């Protein structure tokens, strides 16, 4: 095993430990809130930016402020909701089960994160470096990354490779 293998193990282990510490409910709510925040920012930034016109004259700054306001607003509401649900779980006595499932969720999240990094790295010249071929664990993630690559439209792949 080489350094990249140890890094892969560390990423998955750290994600699993975070999942164990927070529990499944907090982890799922956190993931859902981040997805909702990004979706809200993506879908509603234009009308919010239009409302900010009297205060911000530069269009790019106005759009950035709208995205930031939407994302932070959803994250705050989500944090409150997450706190309330986590308190409910703590009171029901399901803490052990919640944490065990959080560990599993965290390990799965770490695995997906590593696969995503391998997917993005496959679009760059990194795959030609000697360590890429020497790694024992990268081969396992290459299969998942190849599947992910097949799901991406060709024009998106071309734009990413052009970066």
TrEMBL record:
Keywords: Membrane, Transmembrane, Transmembrane helix. It is found in: Membrane. The chain crosses the membrane at residues 6-21, 28-45, 65-88, 100-123. GO terms for biological process: toxin biosynthetic process. GO terms for cellular component: membrane. It is a multi-pass membrane protein. It comes from the Bacteria. This is Colicin V production CvpA. It comes from Halochromatium glycolicum.
